[in-house]
Each structure stands twice: as C-alpha cells, then as structure tokens.
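Re: weekly structure request thread

Next one in the queue (508 aa):
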Amino acid sequence: MPLAFVIFARGDNKKGHVPNWIHYTAPYILRFSSALPPRESLWSSKSGIRVRKGSRSGRFWGVVSTNRSPNPVPSIVVRSRSTWCIPSARLIIASRATPPVSVATSLAPAPISARMRLIVLLALLGIAGAVHVDLPEPFADHCILADDQNKYDPAGQFDVPWFNIDLDKPASERWTEVAATYSLEIKALIGVVKGLILPIFPDAMQFVDTLFADMNDMMPQPYRDEMINIAEAADVPLGEIVMYNIFYEIFTVCTSIIAQDPRGHLIHARNLDFGLFMGWNGTSHEWEVSSVLRRMVINVNWIKDGKVLYVSNNFAGFIGAYNGLKKNKFSITANERFMAEGGFVGMIRWALGMEPDGKWMTWLTRETLEQAESYEDAKERLMNTPMLSPVYYILGGVNAWEGSIITRSLNGTDLMTTLDPDRENGWYVLQTNYDQNQDPLYLDDRRTPGNKCMQILGQDNVGFQGVYNVLSSKTNLNKLTTYTVLMDVVEGKFETHLQSCPGSCWPF
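Done, posted below.
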C-alpha cells in the first residue's frame, strides 16, 4: 500500500543554507509507490524535520507528515534538478531531467512521531478559508440608535437552549446529551468544511480522521476524554471532532464591549463573527459556515458540587469557552488577535513539543472561569499564562471601573486598556480584532462605527437594551455575526441572542 507524505515547508538553498520550516506555503499530498536507492536524504524521521543539502538542488521541500504504517517509514531523497513543488495529489516527485520516478526508500529505523504527522493537518485548516468565493458588495456602517430604533427583545434569549455540563461526572460522560442532540448539525458543519478543503486536497479527510485523532492523544485531560465522548455520542470520527475544536481557535472575528452606567454598574457584551471566506452562498446571501453555526448555539450551566459554578455559551460540540460569567466574580470574552506569530504558529510549536505548557485560547477562558475567584485573580491568569495564540481577553468585574482589555502575545501582555474615569469616554471599552494603539484594517473597521454608536447611546442609557442595539448596528452586525451575548455579573444575567444581517451588510 503506498505511503503518503505531505510536503509542507520550503525555501531556497543558497550556499548550503537550510530554510526555516516555519516559512510555509500550501501543503501538497504526494504518494510514493516504489523504492529506489537513496541519494541525499532530505528528511530524518528521528528529528522530525531535518533538511540537508541535496545534489545541486536549488530548492527543497521539507517532509513533515506521514500516515500510519507498520513498516519503517521511508526517507525521501533529493535528485539533481528535481521538481519538488507538485500542486496535486497522487503524483510522484519527478525530475525534470528524467522520466517520472519514485524516490522513496525504506531507510528510517522507526515511524515518524505523531506530533510531526499532525502539523500539516493544521495547515489544511489554515487554507480552508482561502478558497476563492464571490464576495458580497461592501456597505456602509449605520447606528440604529440614530434613528431611535430598538431591536432588543428579551424573549429572543429563549431561542437558545440551555444544557448542563456536570464537572463532577467523568469527562467521558459530560457531553453525551449535547452531542447526541446536535449530531446532525455537527455533521453538517463538518460537511461544509469538507466541501471547502476536498476540491483542493482530495485526500485530506483520510488524514484528518487519523492524524487529528492522534492529536487528541496529546491533549491534556479532561479535554481528551471530552472530545472522545462527543465523537462517540455524535457518531462522528474523533479526528473530525478534534479538527472542529481547533477550527475555532483560528477563524473568529468579534466585537466585545464593557460599559459602565452612571451608578458604576457594568454590562459586558459581545458579537461573535465566524466563517469569513468559508463558502459564500449566492442564493441565501450568507456564509455557509456562519449559517450552520447559528443552528448550533447553546447556553451551558457548568455544574460543580451540585451548583452552577459559571455559565457560558458554546457551539454544540465545542469544549472551550469564548465567553462566560461567574456570578458576583467576573465575566470574560476572548477575541482573536491577528499578528505575525499567530495562532497557527503557536499550534505548530505545540505540535512539535516546543510549547508544552501553552494554553489554547478558549481553554484558558474555561479554566479561568472554573478556577479564579475574583476579578484580580482572573486578570493575573489571563495576563501571564503562556498561550498558543495571541488574543484579546476582555475582562469585567463587579465593582465600578473593573473593566480591562488584556492584549496578549504568546508569552506576556503587550498592552492593557482599562475603564478610566479620567479618559474621555472612559466609561466603556470596545475591542474588535486590532490593537487599541493601532488603526484597524480599513476593510474591516468595526471599531470606528462601534465607538460612534456607543457615543450616540451615552452612559445614561447603558443596559442590555442599549448595548444590544449598538451590536445590532452595521458594521458590528455583519454577514458573519452568529450571536450576541449580554452579561451582568452582579445580577448573574446571561442572555444569548441569535443574530444575522439580511440584506445589504458588510461581509465581515
């Protein structure tokens, strides 16, 4: 049976220089069906990634993944003037000087580690959103408060069901009800993702099913057993559930707000936008992933010792937390931060064992909600815990002026923005996906419309209704928006409202 390799990292070999593997391009899946005597080794299974100079070759491709095999894993060799960049599956590496030949040989003493086989599967997620689609026309922002409109309906919260996740139960039993209830929706979402990946990489899902399942073995508890529980209850391959959970770490855009009324009472809210470039449906005028996700939004009571420890909302089958409330303690929302050393890089470093203590963005949110007992305690954890991806943590407390935006890099806090009585409009903070001291991308400026709308609202009108209407105004409301969550820590109120933006809306 042919062995499959994924060719991933490239660079030019100049004067013996070996390119850094992290400078990656799109992966290519190749098959090798026969063996020839080796020339110069391009890859070593012992170290995972080791690229060595080839015979007069000007460009190398690093081998970073294989499928499972009971036999010794082959080593790939470089041939003179070889062409390594072959953008198609089921092709053999071919020399431009000779007829196509296979260049696999069984030299390696042991199979490559699971960590190395997983890296390219992360890359597949990274390119899933890069599929060409016809984008909708862009449209201008508009604050509905300027027209005295009110879209807030408290009854809307009842469209989102509540489930209990009992932390006193074994992790292997916690998600059974949720996963069984939403099995069809989970399969539908994975089907959309497959539809984006498979036209480019026809063999991708066979790797997902096996290699992401391997990745689950590296997950810490209780997450490892929770994902197995979801896979079994939803009747979905484990690898696809792991992919589904990683999916959310790298593809979100959001708007979060903490606002304080004149009495010092805090309201914390956010829009979660998801699905950019993921299958534009020209008939329904929606992003396909966003459309499926709206049917999967749930609220969760997290139970400990028979009592509600905290509350959050989730997409069914997802075990992390983007936002949550711990009554009389604090509230958290997490917004993705885009930077060069982003979440994808952190995940690869984790897969290589280079960041064993790094936390996934939404898992740190969940762990902070479970373990922290105060605003200051939560703040310390969110500021200093090593991360796998940069993130903005928006944290609210119970006392006046306890509101902050924690701008995180992988190993520390780069910037802190807080509610401030001495700053103009310091009664609120608003965070999208750009640093507070930098201008947002002009194609994705949700900050300026949000700030304008907050100032139209005014501090006297801070409350669930007022902040909801800000988040229901374009472009903070857009084609990607799946829900708005409203939180009041002191009163313990937590409302999730499904959102969509029909008609003329900004695509992101």
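Residues 209 and 240 are 6 Å apart (CA to CA). Residues 1-117, 127-136 have pLDDT under 50 and may be disordered.
Next request, please.
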